[in-house]
Structures are given as structure tokens and as C-alpha cells.
Design brief:
about 120 residues; alpha/beta; Rossmann fold; 4 helices; about 20% strand
């Protein structure tokens, strides 16, 4: 199965990518940092660098990956977070879902924490 993991370099994504790859899935992991893309690749997935708060970048990344499933594990909140940008993040994932997907797996839990740098 072709799986797209948004937030692939995060706490959950780093653990999920190798498990999916070991099970034989074709995995594409999205990260906003080129420096973290190598870790995604070494875990057995293709890596794509895109800002989740940029709807066009997310749409391009997802379109190129042609996933059957999107796993939404975006949890890092930038220090300059503004409430409106959160809506853009959700909207960008929704744009990605416009493809003929049957399954989207969202983050199951999030805690209120201090923003990351």
C-alpha cells in the first residue's frame, strides 16, 4: 500500500516509518526540514520536504506521492504560531484528501504544550 506520512520526522512519525516499511508498504514521509529528510530515507521511506502550513506545497507533495492512505501526525507548533495558521494547516491536509483516498488517519491525541522553536 502507498502511505503518505505527514509529520514523518516527529516523535510518532520516526517510529511509524520503519514499521510501515518493514511491513512492505511504499512510504513517503513529509518533513519541513531538509536536514531531517535523510533520517526518513534511512528508515526505508521516500522523503519530501514541504511546509505543512503551505497548502500548495502539501498538495504537490501528496499528488506526487499518489498515496492510498494519508497518516496525519503533524504536531510541532512553530514559535510564531498564530491561530489562523492552524486553520491553514488543517485546510492543507484537507486539500491533500481531495484525491480518491479511502483512508485518512489523523493524529489521535495532542496535548497543549509550549510552542517548539
Amino acid at each position: 500500500m502507498r502511505v503518505f506520512v505527514a509529520g514523518a520526522s516527529g516523535v510518532i512519525g520516526r517510529r511509524l516509518i520503519p514499521l510501515l516499511a518493514q511491513d512492505g508498504h511504499a512510504v513517503t514521509g513529509m518533513t519541513r526540514s531538509e536536514s531531517k529528510a535523510a533520517g526518513i530515507r534511512s528508515a526505508g521511506a521516500d522523503a519530501v520536504v514541504a511546509d505543512a502550513l503551505d497548502p500548495a506545497a502539501v498538495a504537490i507533495a501528496v499528488t506526487r506521492a499518489k498515496p492510498e492512505v494519508i497518516v496525519h501526525e503533524l504536531t510541532a507548533i512553530p514559535a510564531a504560531f498564530e491561530g489562523g495558521r492552524g486553520a491553514v494547516c488543517v485546510w492543507s491536509i484537507n486539500i491533500a484528501v481531495i484525491s480518491p483516498l479511502k483512508t485518512v488517519c489523523p493524529v489521535s491525541i495532542q496535548y497543549a504544550t509550549q510552542p517548539s522553536e
